[in-house]
Structures are given as C-alpha cells and as structure tokens.
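Annex B, item 7. Sequence and structure tokens for protein A, then protein B.
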Amino acid sequence: MDAKKTAFLGLGVMGFPMAGHLARAGHAVTVYNRTASKVGQWAEKFGAGHGGSTALTPAAAAEGKDLVMVCVGNDDDVRAVTLGPDGALAAMRPGAVLVDHTTASATLARELYADAKARGVRFLDAPVSGGQAGAENGKLTIMVGGDADAFALAEPVLGCYARAVTLMGGPGSGQLTKMVNQICIAGLLQGLSEGINFGMRAGLDIERVLDVIGKGAAQSWQMDNRGKTMAADKFDFGFAVDWMRKDLGICMAQSRVDGTALPVTALIDQLYARVQARGGGRWDTSSLIRLLRDK
C-alpha cells in the first residue's frame, strides 16, 4: 500500500491505538488532541520510531494531508475539530478525504458531507465497533457512509486498524448502521443479564450453563466475552455505560425523526441511567446485571 499523509484528531482509548496502527503501517501521521498530555504520550510511543508528528490545532494537523481521521466524543466535539478557522476543513486540500470515526448523528454526517463537498473535500461517516480491544488489536468493524470514490481511497488505509470496512450507502448510512448495532447490543445485554441472574438464583453452575448454551442458538459475542465476567461481578473495563447512554440517545433522537418505535431501547436507556446513579458511569455496559443482583 502506498504511504499516505494522514492526520488523526482525537487520541482517546480508541483513537490512540488507531493512530498508532497507521504509523506502524508506514503512513506519515500527524496527531492532534485537545488534552496535550495525550499528544505527548502518543509522540513518545510512535513519533521517533515511526515518523509520527504532532500539531497544536486541527487545521495545522490537517494541512496538506491525503486523509484526516476524527475520533472524538459527540456531535459538538466533531464540530469543534472540523469547522471554524482552526478546524480541519479550513486547511484540507481539494480531493482529500475527511473520515469521521465518532459515533455521532446521521444529521451531522450529512451536514459535514455537504460542507466538505462545497470545499472540494470528500467526507465519509465511518463509526466503528469492536471497543478498545478491537482498536488495540487492529480488528475493528467499520461501517461507512458516503460516496464510492471516497471510500475507494480510504478503504486501504482504514484497513490498518480494521478487519472489516464496508460501504453501507450514502452520507449518514454509516451512522445509521452503528445505531442498529447499539440497539441490538443493548437488548442483548439485558437478556443476557436476566438469563445469568435467573440461572445463578436457581442454583446452577453458571459458567457451565454459559459453556453449554454458548454452543447453541443463544451464542453471541457478548455471551462469549462478557458472560463469565458478569457472573463474577467484574465491570472495570470495556465500553462504558456513559458512552452507551450517549449512543442510545442518538438512536432515540433518530427514531423520533423517522417515527420508529424503540420501546425496549428506551427502557434499557433508563436502566443504564440507574447504573449511572449508582456510580457506574464508567463500568462496562454488561453491568446491567447489577440492577437485578442488588435489588
């Protein structure tokens, strides 16, 4: 793969390793992060050995780059690093590709697509699934919305930290697909919580139960990777409840636009609010079982 001049904006638990994979693959990477200490940590790990560099503003990071990746917290954070005089779009050259990995709204994706197009820049909304472990291991799943020509340019580069990169449709399609992903996960985790709690209260060897039913129709990634830690009451890792509530809020806002019913999702969002009230905002999303166990 030809080396590309890239920028990565946002060095959180996902962005930090994702930008690192780009550097290890031989791409020239310039990073920006709102918290300067993260920039220093990334530069120490990837700067000297892999040619990574840092910038003080998103615009400075994006100037002259072939691709600019964004992975921040929410819609407002995306706007902060892409728009305005210090935003990435102000400095990107015509023909370059802006890729937003943030889980954000489809409305924002369409707005940025139009803004970028007016400047001669290509835009892809490209939220990811796979969590921190997927980012660190380069095994993310990326669902992409945008134009086929932009996707063709970006796909080989995104493959540096993904096992699957799929174009789902036009602008906003990546974000809508991620919403489906989160809706399915939320419902599955509540079912898994109820099942494990039921089995434990019934006196079953729950690890044995999970081993058996995990070979049948009940099998899922969540069961394989979270079932036994749920039974062991361990939640100090993984995808945080705070992040899931943000994502479910996006899902429910979109459902109001589309007139779609999400009764179970709305219920689980309120259950997560109860987890937050217990101080579990940074616990893994599998902590739903705490509400059943601690009644």
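Protein B:
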Amino acid sequence: MKELVEPPINTIAWISNVSTGLPRALRKPLEAAFLTYLAGAGLDAAMVDILDENIKKAIYLIKSFRDEIVFTQADIS
C-alpha cells in the first residue's frame, strides 16, 4: 500500500475487531495471531489489550524478528 501513493500512508488496526462473535476461548489467541500477521505485512500501529498475555507474547515475538530486542535462551523457559 505504501508504494502505491505519495507520500506514503501509515496503517493502523484495532485488533480486537477481528474476534467479534467468536467464543471467548478463541478470541485472544486469534487476536495475537492476527497482530503477528499484520506486523509482517507492514502494519505501522495497532490498538491492542496490553494486559493480555497472548498479545504480550506476540509483541515480544514481533520485536525479536525485527531485531529490536535480543531473544535469549532464558526466554524459552
């Protein structure tokens, strides 16, 4: 999308909208997976539930793939 217009536009998404209507047990894991997918597609910003453990793990994973933090062996355990 950014290559199509000048000046480039920024994208933002409200992640919890993707899980509307799903059973509660599926909502948070789906939101975390969707956030990770959109981050890989170039999402600039997202509105998320920062208290959710699934979202925290997804953000950590995104940052480690972008080399913004160092992933260590201690993070696995």
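Comment on protein B: The chain has two helices and two strands.
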